[in-house]
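This is your field. Have a critical look at both lines of this record:
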Amino acid sequence: MKKLHLISLLLPLLALLVIPTTVQANIVLNPGFETADGGGAQNWFNWYDPANGVSQQRVTDVFLSGAASANTKLTGTSGYTMGGWGQVLTGWSPSQTLNSSLWAKVSMTGDAYAQLKLEIIKPSGNVDVWGPSTASTSWTKLEQSYLIPSDTTQIKLLAIHVASTGTNNGDIWFDDADAAIPEPTSMLLLGTGLVGLLGFGRKRIK
């Protein structure tokens, strides 16, 4: 009777062996811009229009977490301009789902905003995957999911700044970038431990 009682208690827990979960490891290097590289951030490239009053730098006075962020400063910028921070991603495979995100905030006089973008490089034609944007003065999470085409050869994660009209003065900050591939797994360690516990209980009952 005791044996049956123990088994009835353990069976619901053993069922966890077949409950799928997901593990998502961030494949972005230096995601919080914590490590400097000159005036920039290690593992990140950037592009901007200095002739139109745009500058970019890693800063340590404004950040979401950690102790740094990526900054774009517009000083008297007029008309349309676009640039940003980017990274070539590794650790993915074609036909997987890529979940990407970053945080941004804007302090600007004028018409400018921050936006998440993926650049998909493939022989049949490159694809620009534009994600959400923000002009909020509070930290805002920008995120999207994308199924990687089967012929993709390279993926770039981009933190974009855009100023479209008028004269712009102010700052845009980016922090805590993330790109992850969900990987199915199971609670194997927990299940293994429960199997051992079941064996131990059977020995004691005998």
In short: Helices lie at 2-14, 188-205. The radius of gyration is 24 Å.
